[in-house]
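queue> holo job accepted (copper (II) ion)
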Amino acid sequence: MNKFVKLSLILSVIIASQAIFASSHGDHKTHVVQMKNMGTLGAMVFEPSFLKINLGDSVLFEMADAGHNAVTVAAPSGSKPFDTRYEPSTKVTFDVKGLYLYKCAPHAMMAMAGIIQVADANNSQEIIAAIQKFEDTVMMPNVKTRISDLFKENVK
Ligand SMILES: [Cu+2]
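queue> job finished
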């Protein structure tokens, strides 16, 4: 066996073992969150506004109506803040466990926000504090507790 054949054999074994590793950890899902002017929860909403996903899953933020974004408000330490920058469709991958609070910047005063739970709720105290701070800025009385209600109903 010459050197080249040996090397390519070793390489193909490495590639094959990586493929097996990836598939045994595989099936990361992509979930869709729509940014809407009107949804089942009322005006200016993310739908669904609460999502529980697995570590490594992604969320595709889709702009069903124009003029919305999704921007991190609070997230687990070590995670990278996201901002969909008013793009029609943005995929965000979640690689750190915990709760993420995000908002639509122009409609935050109308309580346009959402929560994503990635596996566990290890940072729930920080998120509760961030929701309180967020709701202090909500100007519409009818949706003042929309996000704290969402948290209470869903986060376990
Ligand atoms: Cu919005």
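queue> The pocket of copper (II) ion is lined by residues 35, 44, 68, 104, 106-107, 112 (CB under 6 Å).
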